[in-house]
Write a structure and sequence with these properties.
The protein is of the alpha+beta class. Helix content is about 60%, strand content about 15%. It has eight helices and four strands, in the order ααβααβααββαα. It has a four-stranded mixed beta sheet with strand order 1-3-4-2, with helices on both faces. The protein is rod-shaped. The two termini are about 65 Å apart. The N terminus is likely disordered.
Length: about 240
């Protein structure tokens, strides 16, 4: 091994060691804590660590180092949302911050994000409730660097649709109720005939049954309307 090559190799090793020492202390927990401090200053609720989003961040970090790209979209066009869904995080909203370089501290990473409009917006977005972070160092494009992946999310709302069973029952019961009321009307007219005293008990029973039937239909209708209104409100607030 010639002298020049030995010197070059030594410089590379030193640069790698120096870079690692320069960024000592870079950690997921600290970056989350500092990000939450930024949110607190803006009166935004703190993000809580989500294990699935943490897994998403770790996989994205490893993939970028392995395939040597640095982007919100993978080489084949996959965005972070699709990655999160694949790992089992059903989200209503999701976002991602990336960082690459040599940083003096965790604070320096977050400070850099806070000076960038899009990254700052993600950190301070009040719609986000969950976070997952991954940090790692390695060789990228021939240089020693640190990478940080920050994934934000909020779970998808489960908006329950009105019961199909109640809807179908209402449709059929309304038809039956109309027929029962028509039959009751016929009995009432017949009861006015001088010789119709024998049907009075039947008429009274039928009248009671129809009233109970209509009352039950009204209850179901009220429940169905309440469920429909709740569903619409849930969808509007998604």
């Amino acid at each position: 091994m010639n002298t020049f090559f030995k010197i070059a190799l030594a410089l590379c090793v030193f640069a790698s060691f120096a870079g690692s020492a320069f960024a000592v202390g870079l950690s997921e927990d600290a970056i989350i804590e500092i990000s939450n401090e930024e949110r607190e200053r803006e009166d935004v609720s703190a993000l809580k660590v989500d294990l699935t989003l943490t897994q998403v961040a770790e996989e994205k970090l490893a993939d970028m180092f392995a395939r040597q790209y640095f982007d919100h979209i993978t080489p084949e066009g996959t965005k972070i949302g699709a990655h999160a869904k694949k790992d089992g995080y059903a989200y209503g909203i999701i976002g991602e911050n990336l960082a690459r370089g040599i940083y003096e501290s965790d604070q320096a990473v977050v400070d850099a994000w806070m000076e960038s409009g899009g990254h700052r917006a993600n950190i301070l977005n009040s719609k986000f409730s969950d976070i997952g972070v991954a940090v790692g160092d390695g060789i990228f494009a021939g240089e020693y660097v640190w990478m940080v992946v920050q994934v934000f999310g909020h779970p998808q709302k489960i908006c329950t649709k009105p019961s199909d069973t109640i809807g179908r029952r209402l449709t059929s019961d309304t038809v039956y109720a109309k027929r029962a009321e028509e039959a009751l009307s016929l009995y009432k007219r017949a009861s006015r005939h001088p010789t119709a005293s024998a049907i009075q008990p039947l008429l009274k029973t039928l009248s009671t049954l129809v009233s109970l039937f209509v009352e039950e239909i009204n209850k179901r209708a009220t429940l169905y309307v309440e469920e429909a209104e709740a569903f619409e409100e849930c969808m509007r607030s998604e």
